[in-house]
C-alpha cells in the first residue's frame, strides 16, 4: 500500500516504472553476491542489480501489473486535494507500487502519442509501429483506438503494431487488452524478446516505421568514469568484491568501446591533452591547490539500444518519454541516478549505487540533448561528418524535445485531464519529464 510519503514521492519525483517491472518486493532475502570473483563494469553491475533473474530487483517483484479498471474522470474532482484522495484510494486497493502516466491518464496520454504520429508520418505508406516495453497493452490499445476513430479508414486497415516485450506474462496481457476491440487483433502482435539483441530484429527493414519507448530509458544500464582531479585522465569504473563480500570500485584505463563511443559523442577530451598551454597551466595550478575528483555517468545502455534500432530500422521515427531530471540525488556525478528502496512502507534513498544488491531500484535522468546527439551518431550522420565523408551521404534527423505539458497541449486533449478548479495533473505534476521526437530526413542543410 502507498503511504502518504509514497504519494509525495510519486508527485514530486514522478517516478514511473515500465509496466513489465511493476509489483511489490517479495520477502526473499536479497543477494549480496551480484559480483563474483571477477570485476565487472558498472553497467553490468547495474544490469544484474536490476534484471538478474535470480537476484535482480525486478525479479523480486510479483507478476501483478498496474492496470486501472476504468479511466479516471478528472472533471468530476473539485481540485488537487480531491484527486489525490482518489489516487490514494486506488493505490491502497492495488498490489502495485506505481502506475505509469499512460495508465493514469488513459486513454488521453496514448491519444496524444497517436496524434503526434498521425501529424508527422507519411500516410501514403502503410503505418508500422513498434513499441518497446509495451506493458499491459494500454498504450497500444489507446493508439489503435485513436487511429480507428480519427485516421482515414485505409490507414487503420493497413496498420501494423508490434510490441517487443521481454515478459511472457505481459505479452499475454497485451493481447488480452488490445483484444477488447476485435478488429485490433489482426493488426497487433507481440514478440517476446529483448529489444537490445540485434539478432531478434532479423534482416534490415528499410520500410518507414515508428518506435515508441515510454519510460524505458531511465532503467537502462549506465557506465561510470572517474578522474582524480581536473587534470587526471578519465578512468573506467569497475566493481569488485573483496574477500569479506564488501563491494568496492576499481579504476582502469578506458578501453571499453561503448564508453569510448559515449565520450566521443559528448566530445570529452582526455584531460591530459588538448587546450592551450595557458589553460593547461591554470588547470595544473588548480588541481594542486584544490584537487577535485570527478565522476560522470554515461548512458551506454541507451547507446547500445539506439545502435541496434538504427541498424535494424534505418528509416525509423522515434518517440520516447522519460525523466529530464531527478531531484535530491545523493550520488555524485553528472547524470547520476537515484537508488531507492522501500522499508516499512516508506521510501529510502541510498548514498551509493553499490548499496543496491537486488533490493533497490536504480533509475537515471535522461539528458535529452545527449539523447539527440546519440540519435544522430547512431543514424550514421555525425560519424560521417567527423570522418569527413560527403554531406550527401549523411542522414541527419529532424528532432524535437518538449516538456510533457507542452507536448500534450500540442498533440493531446488537456481539457480531459483537468479538474473543476483548473488543476491538471498531466500538465502540472510531471514537470520533470520530456518527450523526444525524431524523424529521418536526407536534407542535411
TrEMBL record:
Q: What class of enzyme is it?
A: transferase
What Gene3D superfamilies does the database record attribute to this sequence? Answer: 3.40.50.12710
Q: Which InterPro entries match?
A: NDUFAF7, NDUFAF7_sf, SAM-dependent_MTases_sf
| Record GO biological process | methylation
Q: Please tell me one Gene Ontology term that the record gives under cellular component.
A: mitochondrion
Q: Which reaction does it catalyse?
A: L-arginyl-[protein] + 2 S-adenosyl-L-methionine = N(omega),N(omega)'-dimethyl-L-arginyl-[protein] + 2 S-adenosyl-L-homocysteine + 2 H(+)
List its EC numbers.
Answer: 2.1.1.320
What are the protein's GO molecular function terms? protein-arginine omega-N symmetric methyltransferase activity
Q: Which UniProt keywords apply?
A: Methyltransferase, Mitochondrion, Transferase
Q: Where in the cell is it found?
A: Mitochondrion
PANTHER family noted in UniProt = PROTEIN ARGININE METHYLTRANSFERASE NDUFAF7 HOMOLOG, MITOCHONDRIAL, PROTEIN ARGININE METHYLTRANSFERASE NDUFAF7, MITOCHONDRIAL
- Membership in a protein family: Belongs to the NDUFAF7 family.
Q: Quote the function comment for this protein.
A: Arginine methyltransferase involved in the assembly or stability of mitochondrial NADH:ubiquinone oxidoreductase complex (complex I).
Q: Which protein, by its recorded name, is this?
A: Protein arginine methyltransferase NDUFAF7
| Species of the source | Solanum lycopersicum
Quote the gene name from the UniProt entry.
Answer: LOC101262603
Amino acid at each position: 500500500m502507498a503511504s502518504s510519503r509514497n504519494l509525495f514521492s510519486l508527485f514530486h519525483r514522478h517516478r514511473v516504472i515500465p509496466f513489465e517491472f511493476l509489483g511489490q518486493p517479495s520477502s526473499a532475502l536479497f543477494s549480496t553476491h551480484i559480483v563474483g570473483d571477477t570485476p565487472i563494469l558498472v553497467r553490468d553491475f547495474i544490469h544484474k542489480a536490476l534484471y538478474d533473474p535470480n537476484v535482480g530487483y525486478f525479479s523480486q517483484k510479483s507478476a501483478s501489473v498496474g492496470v486501472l479498471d476504468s479511466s479516471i474522470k478528472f472533471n468530476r474532482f473539485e481540485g488537487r486535494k480531491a484527486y489525490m484522495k482518489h489516487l490514494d484510494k486506488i493505490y491502497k486497493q492495488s498490489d502495485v507500487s506505481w502506475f505509469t502516466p499512460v495508465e493514469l491518464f488513459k486513454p488521453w496520454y496514448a491519444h496524444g502519442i497517436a496524434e503526434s504520429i498521425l501529424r508527422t508520418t507519411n500516410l501514403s505508406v502503410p503505418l508500422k509501429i513498434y513499441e518497446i516495453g509495451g506493458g499491459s497493452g494500454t498504450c497500444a490499445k489507446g493508439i489503435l483506438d485513436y487511429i480507428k476513430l480519427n485516421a482515414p479508414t485505409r490507414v487503420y486497415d493497413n496498420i501494423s503494431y508490434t510490441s517487443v516485450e521481454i515478459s511472457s506474462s505481459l505479452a499475454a496481457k497485451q493481447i488480452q487488452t488490445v483484444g477488447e476491440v476485435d478488429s485490433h487483433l489482426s493488426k497487433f502482435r507481440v514478440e517476446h524478446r529483448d529489444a537490445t539483441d540485434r539478432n531478434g530484429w532479423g534482416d534490415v527493414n528499410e520500410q518507414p516505421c515508428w518506435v515508441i519507448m515510454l519510460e524505458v530509458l531511465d532503467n537502462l544500464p549506465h557506465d561510470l568514469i572517474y578522474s582524480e582531479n581536473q587534470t587526471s585522465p578519465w578512468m573506467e569504473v569497475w566493481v569488485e568484491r573483496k574477500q569479506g563480500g564488501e563491494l568496492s570500485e576499481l579504476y582502469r584505463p578506458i578501453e571499453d568501446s561503448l564508453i569510448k563511443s559515449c565520450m566521443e559523442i559528448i566530445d570529452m577530451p582526455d584531460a591530459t591533452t588538448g587546450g592551450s598551454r595557458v589553460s593547461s597551466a591554470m588547470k595544473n595550478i588548480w588541481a594542486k591547490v584544490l584537487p577535485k575528483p570527478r565522476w560522470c555517468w554515461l548512458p551506454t545502455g541507451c547507446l547500445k539500444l539506439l545502435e541496434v534500432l538504427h541498424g535494424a530500422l534505418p528509416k525509423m521515427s522515434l518517440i520516447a518519454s522519460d525523466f529530464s531530471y531527478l531531484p535530491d540525488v545523493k550520488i555524485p556525478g553528472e547524470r547520476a541516478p537515484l537508488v531507492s528502496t522501500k522499508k516499512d512502507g516508506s521510501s529510502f534513498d541510498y548514498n551509493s549505487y553499490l548499496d543496491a544488491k537486488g533490493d533497490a531500484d536504480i533509475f537515471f535522468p535522461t539528458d535529452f540533448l545527449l539523447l539527440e546527439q546519440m540519435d544522430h551518431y547512431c543514424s550514421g550522420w555525425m560519424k560521417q561528418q567527423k570522418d569527413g565523408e560527403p554531406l550527401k551521404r549523411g542522414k541527419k534527423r529532424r528532432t524535437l524535445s518538449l516538456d510533457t505539458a507542452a507536448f500534450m497541449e500540442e498533440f493531446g486533449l488537456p481539457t480531459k485531464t483537468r479538474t473543476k478548479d483548473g488543476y491538471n495533473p498531466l500538465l502540472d505534476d510531471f514537470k520533470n519529464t520530456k518527450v523526444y521526437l525524431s524523424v529521418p530526413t536526407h536534407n542535411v542543410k
